[in-house]
Amino acid sequence: MDKPVIILGLESSCDETACAITKDGALLCNVISSQIEVHRKFGGVMPEIASRLHLENVVCVIDEALQQAGIKMDDVTAIAVTRGPGLIGALHVGLQAAKTLALIYNKPLIPVHHLTGHIYANEFVKPLHFPSLAVVVSGGNTELVYMKNHLDFEIIGETRDDAVGESFDKVARVLGLPYPGGVEIDKLAKVGKHSYKLPTPMHDGTLNFSYSGLKTAVINLVHKLEQNGEKVVVEDMAKSFQDVAIGMIIERVKKATELYEIKQIVLAGGVSANSYLRSEITKEFENTEIEVIIPPIWCTTDNAAMIAKVGEYLYRDKVFASLDLGVDPSWRIEDFKKF
After folding, report:
1. Among 111, 141, 186, 205, which is 20 to 30 Å from 95 by CA?
2. Residue 331, Cα to own-chain centre: how many angstroms?
3. How many other C-beta atoms are found inside a 10 Å radius of the C-beta of residue 149?
4. Of the CATH numbers 3.20.20.110, 2.120.10.30, 1.10.10.10, 3.30.420.40, which one belongs to the domain with range 126-294?
5. Mean pLDDT over residues 313-322, rounded?
């Protein structure tokens, strides 16, 4: 009988140090050490602190994952690791750990694009069906990715400035809300009213996004109201902002389905945890032939299970890297095999 394919995945692109192990597609363990409580006091991720905490935690999460999975490194078939995009110092920690293990135990090294991980996290719910549209929304990225088949990525729309998640965090900060801001805005928007008029940028007929103008409009409006001695109704501002920010995504996804043949839509990235986005995109396509896949909440934040999942497909295609591999903080998803 063929030996089982066991993939050890490592993730350290931002503020979670994670290790997961899969065996023939089944998830054996998914260990995550989160830094959120540390960064919350600064109102956002501090890159240098993130790198130092990854250094402290990476060996621990690997040991814990092996223990939970009940396997030894000798049993592992290949090592998959996030190469980018992300914070350069944070990425280095995970990659150096992966390269060290690959060298010591003579295992293939598989570089994984972080956003492909978020897309393939949906396979923990249902298999991907093609052609599909991945709606990638996170703190650092906002992209519409068209997939004709497995590991076939074409960016058909992307932000020209700020990412949607970044805008959520910056708007939350000006409203005096704690980090991570997206969670707080989502919570307050449920009890607020859309009472503030905000612009909807980027009316150029493309599938691209722009969040800089919306974010700046909220900041300027808040400052103007405060200078005039008027109270900012935080719940209403949260609702007004979220309606516009998420509305832009829904509008462009709908347009994409008119321009491309699409059988399935998958949400991917941290902002896919947003309850309003989940409900609106489900509502938009519930009476159509297009299937909408919503990832489980545990898959929306950074984790290594998604990295191992992509690693399975890359291992099948023998996409391996040499030990002189470096990180790429700006790696584009279309170049996921170029390293």
Report:
1. 141
2. 14
3. 9
4. 3.30.420.40
5. 97
Q: What is the CATH number that goes with domain 6-119+300-335?
A: 3.30.420.40
Paired tokens of 296: 């489980």
β 132-137/26-34 pair status = unpaired
What per-residue confidence (pLDDT) applies to 24? 96
Beta strands at 154-158 and 109-113: parallel, antiparallel or unpaired: unpaired
Summarised one tens digit per residue, pLDDT across range 110-146 is 999 999 999 999 999 999 999 999 999 998 899 999 9
Whether 282 and 292 have beta carbons less than 8 Å apart is answered as yes
Q: Are 95 and 81 in contact (CB under 8 A)?
A: yes
Three-state DSSP at 138 gives coil
- Give the pLDDT confidence score for residue 1 in this predicted structure: 57
Q: Where are the domains of the chain?
A: 6-119+300-335, 126-294
Q: Can 6-119+300-335 and 126-294 be said to share one CATH topology?
A: yes
Judge residue 16's burial from the number of C-beta atoms within 10 Å of its C-beta, 0-12 exposed, 13-18 middle, 19 or more buried: buried
